[in-house]
Design brief:
This protein has 309 residues and is α/β, with parallel strands linked by helices. The chain is built from 13 helices and 14 strands. The chain is globular.
């Protein structure tokens, strides 16, 4: 059974960890958002890709990102030299970015570098960036546009979001294997990630949205909104300021025409009928991945909902 997952960061990484126990990791392909990628002191950082790798390798930090127990000696030295330490990168994490950047500067595409990095961390699944091209997410605020990390990390996601733009989407091409991974699997899963800044950056890469719409595989999406609140990150605030209902139903509406099955939490059971009115089958389960057992249970339910088990 071939499984493809459209993935953002922390929420997707947790879901993938459960999925890799519910199914054979060798049958799983994760297509990762690269809209968060940016340059930090000359190094190419891929936050969502790294979060997925660290989580699946059992290295993720206490907050779901970075490396568990990492030290901050390099960051401290940069601060001593007058640099603002607004983006926290630990010393072991830093090695990943040095390793990646060296290979990218040698002319290797991000997809090859990512595959090698995943293999070296002992992962059996296929991990693909949505594109090998520069494809930044830009958050539009009343005071002007912000690069995603300036909004999310430096600004602590406090600015009002009035739009999200992808200036590199037009010339970007799907990374090798991306379109086939969507067109040819037995199941496609949209992970419980922010629809605007994690999933949309994947879908706007030319050809990806069409491939998802046209795939013969069942497409299952898991809501990142539970009880009107985001499980993680600024998704709820973004939905509100962008004019969408802040609910699992609001997320389902964003995926109308793309998704066959929509998974929502037990607390949102009352929304099931409205979700089904959109042409999706609603599946109600516990979506809060607060333990390894709950991650596994959610992944198993999603596969069952897709008829993939």
């Amino acid at each position: 059974m071939r499984i493809t997952v459209l993935a953002g960061g922390v929420g997707a990484a947790g879901f993938l960890e459960g999925l890799c126990r519910a199914a054979d990791p060798a049958d799983i392909t994760a297509i990762c958002n690269v809209g968060d990628d940016f340059e930090w002191h000359g190094l190419h950082v891929s936050p969502d890709i790294d979060t997925v790798i660290y989580t699946l390798a059992g290295l993720e930090g206490e907050l779901g990102w970075g490396v568990r127990g990492d030290t901050l000696a390099a960051l401290g030295e940069l601060a001593e030299l007058g640099e603002e330490p607004w983006f926290q990168i630990g010393d072991r994490d830093l090695a990943t970015h040095v390793w990646r950047t060296e290979r990218l500067r040698a002319g290797r595409p991000l997809s090859e570098v990512t595959a090698d990095l995943a293999r070296l961390r002992g992962l059996a699944l296929a991990l693909l960036p949505a594109t090998d091209d520069a494809h930044p997410t830009v958050v539009v605020t009343p005071d002007g546009p912000l690069d995603f990390q300036d909004y999310f990390v430096r600004g602590r996601a406090s600015a009002e979001v009035v739009g999200v733009e992808f200036p590199g989407a037009g010339p970007a091409a799907p990374a090798p294997g991306v379109l086939d991974a969507i067109s040819e699997p037995d199941v496609v899963i949209v992970a419980p990630s922010n629809p605007f800044v994690s999933i949309d950056p994947i879908l706007v890469v030319p050809g990806v949205r069409d491939a998802l719409r046209d795939t013969s595989a069942p497409v299952v999406a898991v809501s990142p909104i539970v009880g009107g609140e985001a499980v993680k990150g600024p998704a709820a605030a973004m939905m509100q300021t962008l004019g969408h209902e802040v609910s699992a139903l609001g997320v389902a509406r964003l995926y109308t025409g793309l998704v066959d099955v929509f998974v929502l939490d037990e607390v949102d059971r009352a929304l099931s009928e409205a979700v089904e009115d959109l042409g999706m089958r609603a599946v109600v389960t516990d979506t809060m991945m607060t333990s390894a057992d709950r991650r596994l249970a959610l992944a198993s339910t999603v596969l069952d909902a897709a008829g993939g088990r």
